[in-house]
Amino acid sequence: MIDPLSASLRISGSGLHAQSQRMRVVSENLANANSTGETAGAEPYSRKTITFNSEIDRLLGAELVDVKKIGRDDSPFRVEYDPSHPAADENGNVKLPNVNMLVELADMRETTRSYEAGLQVMKQTSAMINRTIDLLRSR
User: Which of 53, 66, 118, 119 would be a feasible disulfide site paired with 16, CB 3.0-4.6 Å?
Assistant: First the structure.
């Protein structure tokens, strides 16, 4: 079994990695919020989703978080009437991505806060490790 401070670093590190993956997915969704198909009737960008998985690390005796899957949102695409658009179908309708900017911005904020919390855990753990080393040196 690994000491609690090392385990804390490993656990928070797995959370940081998962949240950085989530931020990448959210950023991609925001960047493609207006990406339509290139030809008439073509499918636009489809919003990506991320699913996390909890794994038990037997060596640590703790649960770690990992990305289970990056998938696609199957909600319907938005449709707008714009007959001059290159991706407009024969009726003048253009399929737009199923990305909701408000949802993505809320996800980004939550991801940022979770990442910051994980960083704070790592900083505090590192400070405790350094303080322990200092105490051992002073003996």
Answer: 118
